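Budget justification note: compute hours in this period were largely spent on complex prediction jobs such as the one shown. Inputs:
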Amino acid sequence: MNWHHGVSSAGRVLVALVIALVLVSIAFQTGGYSATGTWSAVLTGAVTGPGSLEATLRYALPLAFIAIGVTVSFRGGFFNAGAQGQFYAGGIVSLYLALVLPASMGGTLVAFVALIAGAFAGALWSIIPGILRIFFNVDEVIGTLMFSFIAIYLVTYVSTGPLKSPTAGGQVAVTRSVPAAVRVTPSSGLSVEMVVAVLLVGIVVWWLLHRTRFGFEIGLVGRNPIMAEVQGVEIRRIGLATFAVTGFTAGLAGAVEVLGPVGNILSGYDPNIGLTAILVALVGVLAVSGALVAAVLFGGLTAASLYLPLAIGLPSTSLVFMTGLISMLVTARLGWGKWPQRVWHGGDRRSKALHDWGESKPLQTGNAGTKLEPITLDRPGSVGSRA
Amino acid sequence: MNEIYTFINSVLLGTTPIMWAALGCLFAHRAGIYQLGLEGLMLIGAFASIGGALAFGSAWAGIALAIAVCVLMSALFWLVVVILKANAIIAGLGLVGVGVGGTSFLQNVIFHTSGAVVAKATVPSPVPGTATGPAAILASLSLLVYLMPIAAIVVWLIARRSTFGLRVAATGQYPFAANAAGVKVQVVQLLALCIAGAMAAIGGSELSVGSLHAFSYDMTAGVGYVAFTAVLFGKEAPWGVVVASLVFGVATALGIFGEIHAVFGLPLEFLQMTPYVVTILALWFAGWRWPHAGNASAGAFAELQE
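Corresponding output:
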């Protein structure tokens, strides 16, 4: 991806953002909320209000972690849509370790171990659907989404079962709280260490993507898996690695949230982070730097969405409507750019054609003869225009 | 014996929304479009049917409104995916976001609540409510449950025994050939998506005005994704989809059964995971080669490529 490619994608993303903003404003206006009032409230909640900027960065932090990982997957053409579940897995494991590891180890060490373990738990939660995708041809979008649903029930299980706080009353079950010594951030959710951590993860992933053979091969697989296979890239290895990286960062985000601002896990805890993080990666035009900028943008929206119910009585979920609209438009071809392709599967007609065409062995990524399918077809629209 | 009746009841309740949505989504898949936004469409349908039922005092008017809204949303999805060539998966996830956020927003605007909206008018049952014994369960099921087999037959007739169905399959399998043969590929895709939208609306209506008689935030909870998977599992063949929907219905019922009766001493949450685990297993099996895999549009996914 050269620089003018990045600029043209950014232009397209901006157009999508503007269209979504206009549509949402119309919806708010018809719903009886003044559009200008809403957006000034969003601005107050995200930037100008007291403590708003801090809140924006606090919500940008987990989004940045996840989006950096999602960037890796999407560049490789694997649609890992299960960041939410991987986030939960990381949160649960890090909470468990924070509660059971002896305090004599020292808070810092316990926090470090818990964070790393959480990240690995996320990686595990991601790599299972990854294995199912790569070796058993189970579509990764559905696989990762189903693992997210399973993780939601795991959250309910730990908060009502083994880790349940015996003292907490009220209607919603909650786990015991992380000891103060293990907390990685104050309740504001921001600490120098965590900001450094996210930058560090960003730099490492950037280096992986742009300065290593691994990153180069991810790009190859994402653009043209058949070509990559012919060139001797082990697609399976690359695929599993991208699943692992995405899960790792999402798990880390979950661990940071639980050991940081949240401090426990509520039954039905839903930070609504999965779709938003995918969107952050796409709005950031699948670049690490772009993901960081977009994370601040969507962090601001999240901060504002929590302020809106107080300020003008708009439900906080109504911004999900907006992220949904952006998501519908962000990959639309509004004039510029091109996105990396997804590795599609199913069918063997054209894999066979490929087999006949060259010496390359057909891609054996599924069981029982299901193969990665080379895609050479153009869209029907372009047929019509050519005819 | 009562437990068996209850179980059959939950199987039917679980299958109905999945099957309605999946049978519609079948057309979208056969036309070569991955309609992942099914979850959002079902949610929109569930909300619109409650709204319509409250406004017009009739569940049928509610369902009609739900169908109208979902067809409109499907047309928008078509515009974004087919005309503007957006990635169908991302746009589909976006449609889910629009469904979740939009219904929540409207719920607050129209009903001034973020809790449950209770339906006043509901879909009636063809069996009189005075029945006792096993028939009492039949009387508790909405007419949409009984219409399900008819819908399956009609979908089979249209998909496999009509010119339109042939055009849809041709569009999905090889758009060049379809185009060369004079099929208006984009129009066929629009119609297929609209059928998917209308039937997802009915599936969502079954959830709100059909069986639960209420709407609450994000009430579909993944049923749309399960229906989407049922199409993949059913190999995009009408009867395959029917069987797949039944499998998922049984899985849902097992989850509910486990909530009532402790099974193997497992915690409740693990039993509630059943439908999702079964979904993954189903996709795994779908990768296997069945002797008669039906007229699945293998090249369908190529459509989404840039």
